[in-house]
Design a protein that fits this description.
The protein is an alpha+beta fold. It has four helices and eight strands; from the N terminus they run ααββββααββββ. Helix 3 runs antiparallel to helix 4 (127-139). Helix content is 29%, strand content 20%. The strands form three sheets. Strands 1, 2, 3 and 4 form a four-stranded antiparallel beta sheet that branches. It has a two-stranded antiparallel ribbon with strand order 5-8. Strands 6-7 form a two-stranded antiparallel sheet. Strand 6 and strand 7 (159-163) form a beta hairpin.
Length: 192
């Protein structure tokens, strides 16, 4: 369901649309599928989706801002289904004519995710994902945002394990069959 909702939101995204309109589309798509938009009222979050534009790294609140030509927009959808589980996913979109730096940071974030996912299997230490993500980001002149991390998901929206996306983290735990978690590297231009 989450993928369907995200795909519907992506179709609504274009130059001139407000992020509030994307939120309306997401909310309606959730209602049509008989699922609840998990962000709505989560710690008083006022909307059904997170829309993070340009330098907003995550958890952007939809509003009346119109999407501009050249914007980078991340749409983060989480739905809660009748079976009692949350499904959390996001995607970043290039709107119109995005410059080289914008294209590079989005591609680097995608490569970080792909490289980390290639390691996901029983026996992998959670902390090892951060090293792979860090090396991919640095090789492309980018840095990993250390403020946010991946997380466990299931009957709770955010739960253990925490999965830092940076090098030399102290995450505990080993991946096992049945573990369900997110990998969500947030990448910035430049290195620190």
């Amino acid at each position: 369901m989450g993928r369907e909702v995200l795909d519907i939101a992506a179709k609504a995204l274009r130059v001139g649309v407000t992020t509030d309109e994307v939120d309306r589309v997401v909310h309606e798509a959730c209602m049509e599928r008989d699922c609840y938009p998990s962000p709505l009222n989560y710690y008083n979050f006022p909307k059904s989706v997170c829309t993070s534009v340009n330098e907003v790294i995550c958890h952007g609140i939809p509003d009346y801002r119109e999407v501009q030509d050249g914007d980078i927009v991340n749409i983060d959808v989480t739905v809660y289904n009748k079976g009692g589980y949350h499904g959390d996913l996001n995607e970043t979109f290039l709107v119109g004519n995005v410059g080289e730096d914008g294209e590079r940071v989005v591609k680097t974030a995608f490569d970080c995710l792909s490289n980390a996912l290639s390691m996901v299997k029983p026996g992998t230490l959670y902390r090892e994902l951060g090293t792979k993500i860090h090396k991919t980001a640095v090789a492309n002149g980018c840095a990993v945002n250390k403020t946010y991390c991946g997380h466990g998901i299931g009957s709770l929206f955010h739960t253990a394990p925490n999965i830092p996306h940076y090098h030399k983290n102290k995450a505990k735990g080993v991946m096992k069959v049945g573990h369900v978690f997110t990998v969500e590297p947030m990448i910035n231009l430049g290195v620190h």
